[in-house]
Amino acid sequence: MAIVQAGETTGGVRRLRVANPATKEHIGDISVNTLEIVRETVARSRTAQEAWGAKTVDERAIVIDRALKLLIARQEDFISVIMRETGRSHFETIMMEIMPACDALSYFSKQARRTLRDRKVGLHLLRNKRLTITYQPLGVVGVITPWNGPFILSINPAIQALLAGNGVVIKPSEVTPFSGKLVAELFRDAGLPSGLLAVLEGDGETGVALIESGVDKISFTGSVKTGRKVGEACGRNLVPCTLELGGKDAMIVCDDADVVRAANGAVFGALMNAGQFCCSIERIYVAENIADEFIRRVVAKVKTLKQATSGEFDLGPMIWPPQLDVIERHIEDAKKHGATVLVGGKRNEQVGGLYYEPTVITNVTHDMAIMREETFGPVVAIVRVQSDDEAIRCANDSTYGLTATVWSRSDERAEAIAKRLVVGSISVNDVALTYGALEAPFGGRRSSGVGQIHGENSLRNFCYPTPILFDRFRTKEEVVWYPYTNDKAKLLQRIIRWIWGTPLGKLMS
Ligand code: NAD
């Protein structure tokens, strides 16, 4: 059964029926907004943005701070909407959605006051000029998001775009539309001007329309396949975009690693959100001398994990049914080519919804689909390696490059390995944290994405850094202005010889 099914079409507007992936119960219907509606929504946001963009950063931050207070107060309501759409546990919903949203609201509100201030920049050459860099809003930012982090991945770029003075139109996944709508509800109640931020229901058609609607930037999070289409459409429309895409993240466990911490970390890193996390550990390369103990501990821990639809449990369902087919294809292909399933390896029919048992698989080889394509499910695939070099070679042999983790008792050794990995960010002796460390620029290399979010330039990436250059001395004219004369040419050549040809000139320029 699909979680999203076609409903009736009325007045030329398609409707979609949405179900809960844990229970398969119908939870609501949405409309697929067409280009016309999308354009009207963007136009409304653009009108509201004029006044919003003219406000000071402090004035914008007041609304963001109010949103934080509201989210803390109403978190249980928000959690129940997100749980209904994702089937996740109460704990995981708090950890993955509410906590990072609170942190983003608080952190970026503070960061905005620091990084969006006008900057006076000293000039190395043109000492008779003065430069100010001002951070102007782009206009309206389109945010297109996936189903695997439906609230946080919608609210996080929205917070940043709003603080930078933009209007925002969000197109959440059709699989989890109601979590996306919470963002509009929160900011409306926090006092955001009407129309400035909108959440549009719809599927890919609405996403396409948003890119075509005249927005000034697209922040896209989703699969590589869609990301390519989004990148192409943004290129055609000359709209700047960031693409946060899929991964096939590697974990390297060195022969001196703390095996207990590494095994516990591997289980959490691979199975959190039932493996539906862009930075899930999908490939583990463990040193041969500790592999037996590592695998034994991973299997023992996985056997303790609970799947359920209510109460205390660890793993929720697959949120999007086609994901189950991908997992099954990867496991069956691996088994056919000689892999061994140590635990799991099949759907969990006892729970009822779209559940796949947490799975540990070994004897996998590097050419199997399970080691090359994004699985996005609760699967831990383990390979034994003979050296750090072999682990690095295998980890880098991928079309993806999102994140990686390295486990060693020596920070120096781990850092040396980290510096050789072609990925967006690396955690040492830890998992899944680089997205949450908002000071760290986050993004993917290779087909895992284009551009970065977070870090020092986070909010500036939602602005146009505009230089304004002033003349300081207001002389009647400049040396290089007309008329051109041979004397002036000789003067310029003397300047060239002195500035770039003498030690003192180089020092002063
Ligand atoms: P998806 O690419 O199928 O859909 C993402 C969004 O794009 C949805 O809102 C969808 O309606 C919309 N869309 C579909 N076709 C479109 C088109 N042609 N133009 C514009 N928009 C279109 O992704 P998904 O299945 O929802 O999400 C899972 C994927 O997201 C995984 O690959 C995961 O790794 C990735 N992801 C990456 C990050 C990251 O930060 N790098 C974070 C979360 C998820």
Keyphrases for this structure?
Aldehyde Dehydrogenase, Chain A, domain 1, single chain, 21% strand, Aldehyde Dehydrogenase, Chain A, domain 2, 41% helix, 509 residues, seven-stranded mixed β-sheet, 16 helices
Summarize the structure.
The protein is an alpha/beta fold and 509 residues long.
Structure, described:
- Helix 2 packs antiparallel against helix 4 (90-115), helix 3 packs across helix 4 (90-115) and helix 3 (75-86) packs antiparallel against helix 6 (177-189).
- Helix content is 41%, strand content 21%.
- The N and C termini lie far apart (68 Å).
- The longest helix is centred in the first third of the chain and has 26 residues, at 90-115.
- It has two domains: 4-244 and 459-464, Aldehyde Dehydrogenase, Chain A, domain 1 (3-Layer(aba) Sandwich); 249-439, 3-Layer(aba) Sandwich (Aldehyde Dehydrogenase, Chain A, domain 2).
- The model has no long low-confidence stretch (mean pLDDT 97).
- It has 509 residues and is α/β, with parallel strands linked by helices.
- The chain has helices spanning 35-54, 57-73, 75-86, 90-115, 152-163, 177-189, 204-212, 224-237, 259-271, 288-303, 322-336, 369-372, 388-396, 411-418, 486-501, 503-508; strands at residues 4-10, 13-19, 26-31, 119-121, 129-137, 140-144, 167-171, 197-199, 217-221, 241-244, 249-253, 281-287, 340-343, 359-362, 379-385, 403-407, 425-428, 442-443, 449-450, 452-453, 463-471.
- The protein is globular, with a radius of gyration of 26 Å.
- The structure holds nicotinamide-adenine-dinucleotide.
- The site of nicotinamide-adenine-dinucleotide (NAD) has 31 residues, from helix 7 and helix 8.
